[in-house]
Each structure stands twice: as C-alpha cells, then as structure tokens.
Amino acid sequence: MHELPLTRELVLIGGGHSHALLLKRWGMSPLPGVRVTVINPGAVAAYSGMLPGFVAGHYERGELELDVIRLARFAGARAILGRAVGIDRVRRLIQIEGHPPVYYDFASIDIGITSAMPELEGFSEHGIAAKPLEAFAQSWDSYQDAVRARTMPRKMAVIGGGVAGAELAMAMAHRLRDIPEKEITLIDRGEIAKEMSPKTRHRMLQALADLNVTLRPQTEVTQIAEDGLHLSDGSEIASVFTLGAAGARPYKWLEETGLDLHEGFVTVSEHLQSSDPRIFAAGDCAYLSHAPRPKAGVYAVREAPVLYENLRAVLSKGLKSAHLRTYTPQKDYLKLISLGGQDALADKAGVRFSGPLMWRWKDHIDRKFMSKLKDLTPMKPPALPEHVADGLREEVEGKKPMCGACGAKVGGEILSRVLQDHPGPERPDVLHLDGDDAAILTHGDTWQVASVDHLRAFVEDPVLMTRITALHALGDIWAMGGAPQSALATVTLPKMTEPLQEAWLTEIMETARDTFEDAGAEIIGGHTAMGAEFSIGFTVTGLIGQPITLKGARAGDQLILTKPIGTGVMLAAEMEMKADGRDMVTTYASMSQSSGEASRILENAHAMTDVTGFGLAGHLLGMCRRSDVGAEIHLSKVPVLSGALELSKQGVRSTIFPANRAYAAEYEGPDSALSDLLFDPQTAGGLLAAVSPMRAEKCLTALREAGYEAAIIGEITEGPVSLRVLS
C-alpha cells in the first residue's frame, strides 16, 4: 500500500475529557495526512467524577484512571509526557518543560484548572492536593494504614467547602467509619456548598452532619503546619492530613499566549475557537463567550464531538473553506453528588432525589463513560488482495506485527552464519574483536572505538526516540570503557511536507546535540532521507586507554547488571495496547538513562558488555564464549522492569525472542515466564560487567548512589562455556 505523506500537525494540549474522547474518535476514524500529538504531564489522567468513590473505597485506583499512552497508541498519536508552559503563536510552537518546542498547524487546549493551594504557606510541605491523583492516592492510602495501626492522630481537614470538597469530606468519613474518635473538618472562607440551590444544599449539609463532619464556614486559613491549620483569627484546627480542594483558577501561562481571556480562561466562540482561529479550547480551561456556563465535566464531554468535527474540518479544508459546527450547551444538567456511602443526591431543574438508587445511576453513568475510553480494540489492518505471492499471506496474517527497536533485529544465529566465513580486517590499524560490537582503530599511541546502531521507531515521539537511540549507540563505547568522542546521525523521516521536515529535524537534532554533549561527544554530521517509516541511527566513536572487552572474565568474578531487563516485552505489549501507561513511563525512563557514569564506576571490570538485542542470556554467553568460562546467575536477583513479568506470564514476547532463545544453546535452567525475560531483547539496556569479588560490593554501592537499579546477579565459573540459571 502506498504510504501517504504527512501534511499537517495537530497538537492537543492536555489530557482532559474532551481530548480523551477526541483521541478515541480519532483512532476509529483518523484523518490521513495528519500527525496528532497529545501533551500531558503524566501517563494517566484521573476521571474526577469517580474520585469521591475512590476515596470512600468503592473503586480501585485503576477504575478512575485514563491511560493517556494507551489512548495515544489507539489514535496513532504521539504522547509527550510533559507540562505545556507557553505558545509561540508567531512561529506556531508549543513550549514544553524539558522538551524541545513542538510545531503545530492547529492546536487545542484542554488542561482543566489548577489550584492556588500551593501558594498557601506550609501547604507544599504539610498539605496534599486532590489532584494529581498519583500523589493524593499514595498519601491517602498511607494515612489510612497509619490510622488503623494507631500510629497517626485521627484528625483531618478539607480546605474548600464547595461540592467537590464536601464530597471528599463525606468520602473520607465513610472510608474511616469504623474508626472511633476521628475528626474531619470541612473549611471554607464563605458558606459550605453555597453554589447549590437551598433545598439541595440543605440535603448535603444533613449528609455531612450524619457523618459527623465538622463545618467551619467563614473561616480563613493562613498557614498549614504539620499538626494543624492556623486561622486568621488566631485560632487553630488540629489536622495531620490536610486535603486541598479550593482555590481553583486558570493556569497562569495562558496569560502569556496573547489569546483573549475571560478571568484567565480562554475565550472561545460557538465553534470552540479562540481569538486565534488556529487554536481551539474545551473543558474547564475554556470560557464559552456565546453561552457562559459554570465549570462542569458534562460540558467537556458534550464539547468533544463538536471539537473533533471542527478540527477535522479545518485540517482538511483549511480555515477559509471549513464549515464549522456550533456547540450549544444545555441550560441545566443533571448533578449527581456522592454522599459518602453508596448513596447519592441527584438534582436537576429543582427536582431532587437521593438514596442508593441514585448511587447506582451515578455508578452506571461513570462506568459507561470510562468504558468508552478503556475498551480500545486495535483497528484491523486492511485485508490483503485476493492474489498475492506464495508465502505472503502466511507471513503477514500468521505473525504478529514486527516489533521495533532491538526487537526488530536479525537473530544471532543468522548473523553468525553470514559472518562466519568473513576473513576479518586486514589493516593493521583495525582491531575487530570477535563478539564485541565496537571495533578498535589505532592511531599511533591513540586507540579509538567505533560502532553503529540504527533503530526502527518504536515510539511516536521523535525526541524520546532520538535520546534512546543515541544512548543505545553509545552503549558500545561505554561497554569498552571508552569516552564518547563523535557521532554521525542517519535519519529517515516518513514522507511529509517541507515545513514538517524542518519541525521534525529540529526536534531530533536538538535532542541529539543535548544527549551527545552530555556524554562529552559532538555531532559532526550525518545524512537524512525520507522513507516509509521513521528510523534513526548513529555512528559513534570514542577514545580509550586499555579497552574492556568480552574476553577477560575470570572464575569467581561477580556479575553486575546496571539496569533492569524487560524492555522488549514492554515495547511489544505497548504496541498491542496491553501495557500500563505508568509501567511504560518506567520503561522509557530506564532506556533514557545514560550508562556513562556506570561505565566510569566499572572501569576496572575484567570484561564488560551492554545488554541489547540478544538479551541478557545471549550477551552473557557471548562473554563466556570469548573468555572460555561458564556463568551462574540467580533469577531472583535479576532486576526486572515494572509490569514485564506479568506481561511475560500473559505470553507477551518480542518477535525476536525465539531467535534469541535458540542462540543461547548453552543455557541450563528453568522454563518460566521469569526465565523467558533472560532472552528478551533490550534497547538501551544496562551494562553487564564481570568484576573482581573484592571490588563488586563497592561498585554496586557506587552504582546505586548514582541512581542505577543495579544488582549482583551471579558469578563467573570455570569452563566449559555454559549458563546455569538458578531460581
């Protein structure tokens, strides 16, 4: 099938409800020629409607979380985990913390609102905000455990007496209903639940009283301390768990965009367009100038289809020709308020109902909304034509899609057969050591290491892909104890227009320069081309004194591994949309960690290699073969990436796994999901070093202090060549 070029960039700033629903729609019906990017601070976005139910113990954390990475994969979009901090509307660039600016043709903002709570003295040290969920959930779980263990006082406070704060206070009271003598105080500088109608407010106040929540209206908090809150009148409220649910306001950086704002919120028209027609906005961060409404998630949900259609229209027709749909918000909406237990209050147009039936109704609505965004079945590829070459149908339909990164490499046995008759270098200044990935070039008394690595893209973000590939290539230099010197880049871009070529290459080269400069090397040139898919590679050189090679391991040496294994399984699972977003963040962080400091710590290793395409077992056996020794490792001591073992138990494997398993012929050990990870191809994996037993513990301590998840996993034994694996 002819690959269509990319011609437009759509950037979604924020992972709010509107954008989450838009990504789902986009995955079901993408617009050819558009590359979509979603920018969000974390891998997950919490659905606020289920937050009180989580606090009360009715839901597990995963039930109210939207996996942004998985949604992006379904939509064919790239996910950038970072915080947007500005928009350059002249150059059309989104500015992101810790990431090069991202170019856009059209953009949409759905970042919700933030809180003024951190500005309250002492809040950052002694308070906890209801969002983001990650920190709040961990703090709440820890506090509950401490209360039940009687190691913490049972005194809590919620700052913010609106509906959200009241729901959270009631949820906390319900969760700890079996704990006697607990104190929960709900505080507001105005009246409690003042935004509700009188009768609805009366019912909420009654529910708060039934749960023994103390109300403190007309109360100003001036400072938060470890054991309580200081008030403006000089009095104090005891609290060791202080939750902030007040001070909602727009993000400050929106003021610097030059967009028309209303009280800090982005003013949008009936088409959800801002004053800049290339920028749309939805959700709580937007102000509907044609029909002002209070902040509520229901509007974000109803805005999603209009936003989707209008963005498709301008992306396909252009600004002048696009016919845009009008968003008309309903005048009132159903309010379903949690009352702590599995009890809820429903209010619409002055009609009120409460009780367990209302809770079941709310639970049904919330679960139905979440199921839309969690039930993501990958779209099937187009069917093959009726007549194809012999063997093509079996190759395409009988196998899962080929993995990227090291999972796409050629197997070790094939390489061995192809290279076995190679006569080797004839130049006296080229020392190619059998089994080592890097060659040594001699220039008088100077020794230079040279190597190359090239990877198919396994992640849609060119920035993340570039950093990981650069560190992967440098691994060969560091594995020999070398100091990186120079790099040549080879970039193949997918077909795209010239403006997009410039935007992509700017992100790629800025990242490459930063990565190599941090390693002490310099990019000295490269080559670019366009092809069917994005790929990137680097030819690298380094300088060494006495090289560390595969040959040199001695019986008794301790085996140190500097990073956890499992990247191949994690990348395969992510491609199949089976991986958890948080686990993928951990995986990307591991691959993005430089091995430069680890190489310096291990400079006295007897033998060393980087663990990459052949997996831990394959690379360790390579060391054994070159050193004519055996090895023994303990599975329980091998560090494994979060999520990798569970996915391995589910049968997730990289496409190169069978070849790696066959290549490790000298393996002696168990056959299990954990042992299978020994044959998992690693991308930008850690260093594996054979270290004198006298130095091993000291090296391990230094590695851990430097931030590596390192471990001593076994030792070198006397020959013959073998790999014995113990549980």
Biggest sheet, spatial arrangement of strands: 34-37-33-38-35-39-36
- Please report which band the strand proportion falls in: under 5%, 5-15%, 15-25%, 25-35%, 35-45% or over 45%: 25-35%
What is the CATH topology descriptor of the largest domain? FAD/NAD(P)-binding domain
Helix content range of the residues, please? 25-40%
> What kind of oligomer do you see?
single chain
CATH superfamily of the largest domain: FAD/NAD(P)-binding domain
Overall mean confidence score, pLDDT: 90
Write the CATH architecture name of the largest domain.
3-Layer(bba) Sandwich
Q: How many strands, which pairing sense, and closed or not: the largest β-sheet?
A: 7 strands, mixed
Secondary-structure topology with pairs:
Elements: E1 8-13, H1 17-28, E2 34-40, E3 44-46, H2 51-56, E4 65-67, H3 68-75, E5 78-81, E6 84-88, E7 93-96, E8 99-103, E9 106-109, E10 114-115, H4 123-126, E11 127-129, H5 133-148, E12 155-159, H6 163-175, E13 183-187, H7 198-210, E14 213-216, E15 221-225, E16 228-231, E17 236-238, E18 241-244, E19 248-249, E20 261-262, E21 265-268, E22 279-281, E23 286-288, H8 297-317, E24 335-338, E25 344-348, E26 351-355, H9 356-374, H10 392-397, H11 412-419, E27 430-431, E28 439-443, E29 446-456, H12 462-479, E30 483-494, H13 498-518, E31 522-531, E32 535-544, E33 558-561, H14 567-575, H15 581-591, H16 596-601, E34 607-610, H17 615-627, E35 630-634, H18 644-649, H19 657-663, E36 667-668, H20 673-676, E37 687-691, H21 693-705, E38 711-717, E39 722-726
Parallel strand pairs: 1-2, 1-9, 2-5, 9-22, 11-18, 12-13, 12-18, 13-14, 21-23, 30-31, 35-39, 36-39
Antiparallel strand pairs: 3-4, 6-7, 7-8, 10-19, 15-16, 16-17, 20-21, 24-25, 25-26, 27-28, 28-29, 29-32, 30-32, 33-37, 33-38, 34-37, 35-38
Helix pairs in contact: 1-3, 1-8, 12-13, 14-15
